[in-house]
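Why do we care about 3D structure at all? Because function follows from shape, and shape follows, mostly, from sequence. That is the central idea of this module. The next example makes it concrete: a single protein chain, its amino acid sequence, and then its structure expressed as tokens.
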Amino acid sequence: MCEGFGLTLRISRNKVRLAAMRAAFGLLFVLACGSSPHLPAAQPSKPAAKLDPDGPHREVVTAQVRPYIDAEIASGLVIGLYDAGNVEIYGFGKGPGSAPPNGNTLFEIGSVTKVYTGLLLADAVQRREVELDQPVAELLPPGITMPMRDKIAITLRQLALHNSGLPRLPPGIAKIADAADPYARYSEDLLYADLVQTKLEATPGTAVLYSNYGFGLLGFALGRKIGGSYQAVLAQRVLTPLGLADTYFAVPATQQARVAQGTNGDLAPVPPWKFDALAGAGALISTVRDQLRLVDAELDSNAGGKGTLRAQMHLTQEPQLEHTAANEGLGWQIDNVGRYWHNGGTGGFHSFVGFDPKTKRGVVILASTATSLIDHLADNLYKVLAKEQVASPRFATAAEISPFAGSYDLQGSKLKILTAGKRLYVDGPGVPRFRLLPISDHEFWIEELQTVAVFEREADKVARIVFVLGEHRMSAPRVEEPRDHPESLPNP
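And the structure:
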């Protein structure tokens, strides 16, 4: 599930990844970011906004999105635009039955689930069942020890703000995780065992460290306190009252034909993800239409609406940190211009949901490919709604990537850059092959490492690759050698 780094591409500063890169692609993987019955059918609290599949922004939205499909960055995308109650939904690429996806197509939304977990917390606070600054330990069974540091106990607020000090993932998950479905077997018993042995990475309340562990624990603890599983209480308290009848933890058989096939960064099909104890971190499956309903309700709440869950939404939107620019609500991220957003990712999907109270506009993006590059679309789509001129993305063509193929020396280890049609790959010793997703005509993104690879030229020849990890830069000069093996692969 995506960490939620913002609307522009931000590079992870994870020291583990940096050390792995320095080990010449002896790469370590950190798992990215429970089933329940289908949510009961419900009617929206007010009529849904009119859908306009051939709306006024189709041409300019197509100009923004089509390059992602043509460059084989994403297999399928649905865009939802909200402008003061007017809704437009546009689908691109391949969806169920090979037709383009649409507003009713179902996607895993990953960490956007955290918005709903934050809303459940706000609801429990409004009902006076819990307090924001209540220690989490008080919601767990007797004898379950919560980790502490400097004698400071973790509170519910700190779980919701990612400043509990808990690591991104519980320590025990690596022992049982299936890379294709990493959260499915992480149970209540394993959660309790991990809480006993977890060492905090920071004193609670002192540093924001994105944590799926923390948000999963928050949902789990709220479920226990309210009575029932997280999945059951979220359906009862949030999803059903809001009329989100197409938002599921497990899609029923009768609706399977609407589910998009998730794909990895190489557009290969991958199995769906399932969740158990950490469902509150990323388990939901939904549609663009339902997420636009959420945007509508959130904007209504911000404007002082008194409808269903509006007071609770207002609480989740309150900035919680003593920051003057970007901030955090209870589940929402707040950017430096005051827009609320969250993104999400699973093994085969990526999502973005955001809204701007000042302009009463919102953007929803659901993709059936696990790539965070689609977050870049959000900024441009806000500009589209504002009637600003926006340049279309420009990605490297098959002809333009061909000169990058060859051998490079990364601190004594040889890397091979290979081409396959429009796609570019990097091979390193003893590790899987990684795809380099285009950002421009010479910059590429390695999703698994959250790293940018920049090809630099000298005298019109490709001289090196520079890998950028946060403020760190690692150069791999090109090595000229006899072409005794192919530098291209069969087209996918």
